[in-house]
Write a structure and sequence with these properties.
5-stranded mixed sheet, alpha/beta, 338 residues, Nucleotidyltransferase, domain 5
């Protein structure tokens, strides 16, 4: 017999983290994440190894999430899962598991778009943002400014035309000779450097769209030039280089966000995605908020990177609207918001 309240199990397997979470009436009861260390030695995520690890982790991770939430399978009202975008092999593990669970328990199956879920991670903790709000979503594969009118009504106002912000961080780190994942290391070393030590030009892109390929190229040429003059240039200036690179990327992000706020008149501002864990970005956004009178919402670190709590939260809101999928739904490496 089901308990009172709506209980949703969320499953996330889009990349290299297997996660399961339980949500009851819009409150997260558990959020279990199993990371995959195997990819570090390869300098990036290896899709086949990721999908194998998901198969090993998914049953114990789901079991732990249910136990921590003190919820039994028979109490679930629906199972939500990441349907897209992501690594197809990794997505298939979560999709297949969710389908099997839905079928065996005879409960609704709810497909979730990964980036929409990142945005709704802002609803997990109090105080939650009021609608409408603007959300800057920044990750390894996406950089967007999204207008959120309600939990399931979102409009992309601007997005990257080439590389994402997270990709710019990681590729810059590789140019500096830093190990994978390099983005967090740039953030770490930047804290001890001078952000104005070196200048990298910011692209002039109309509207609210972004471009980071030119920044990456300018960093490459800058390093090549100075390394010819001094082979130890990077080693001698690592902290200042990290600080300057991070300052440039963050400046691009926040100036577009400022433009979006001015154009829409919205001052309720959120951030989401893996790069929102960047301490430099979080501080700069907070400073911008104070300067321009924004009400800032920044998820805890636990909910910035890939996690199932955001999937369960999105699943809860879709369940309230009666929005579910059939067993014919399939995983997709790329998919629109619709």
């Amino acid at each position: 017999m089901k308990s009172e309240g709506i209980i949703i199990l969320g499953i996330e397997s889009s990349c290299d983290e297997t996660s399961a979470a339980v949500c009851k009436d819009g409150k997260i009861l558990s959020n279990i994440i199993a990371s995959q260390e195997v990819h570090v030695q390869y300098g990036g995520v290896v899709p086949e190894l990721a999908s194998r690890a998901h198969m090993q982790h998914i049953v114990p991770v789901v079991d732990e999430a249910l136990k921590k939430a003190a919820v039994e399978l028979k109490q679930l009202d629906a199972v939500a899962f990441t349907q897209a975008p992501g690594l197809i092999g990794a997505l298939l593990v979560g999709t297949s598991f969710a389908k099997s669970l839905s079928l065996s328990l005879d409960i609704p199956l709810i497909s979730v778009h990964h980036m929409q879920a990142h945005i709704l991670s802002n609803l997990i903790e109090d105080p939650a943002p009021s609608f409408p709000f603007l959300c800057l979503t920044v990750s390894g594969g996406h950089t967007q400014i999204v207008l959120c009118k309600d939990p399931l009504n979102m409009e992309i106002l601007g997005e990257t035309l080439d590389d994402a912000a997270g990709e710019a961080f990681d590729k810059s780190a590789k140019l500096l000779g830093l190990p994978y994942p390099g983005g967090p290391l740039i953030d770490k070393y930047a804290a001890e450097g001078n952000p104005n030590a070196f200048h990298f030009p910011e692209p002039q892109i109309e509207g609210l769209n972004f471009s980071f390929s030119g920044v990456k190229t300018s960093i490459l040429y800058f390093l090549q030039k100075h390394l010819k003059e001094d082979p130890d240039f990077i080693q001698k200036n690592l902290h200042d280089l990290c600080a300057s690179i991070q300052h440039t990327i963050i400046s691009i992000l926040l100036h577009k966000l400022k433009k979006g706020s001015m154009e829409t008149g919205i001052k309720e501002i959120c951030i989401a995605g893996g790069v929102s864990a960047n301490k430099g970005l979080r501080k700069s956004l907070t400073d911008f908020g104070k300067k321009y009178g924004w009400k800032i919402h920044i998820p805890s670190f636990e909910f910035c990177t890939d996690n199932a709590a955001m999937i369960a939260m999105t699943g809860y809101h879709k369940f309230l609207k009666g929005d579910s999928s059939t067993l014919e739904v399939s995983a997709s490496a790329r998919a629109s918001w619709d």
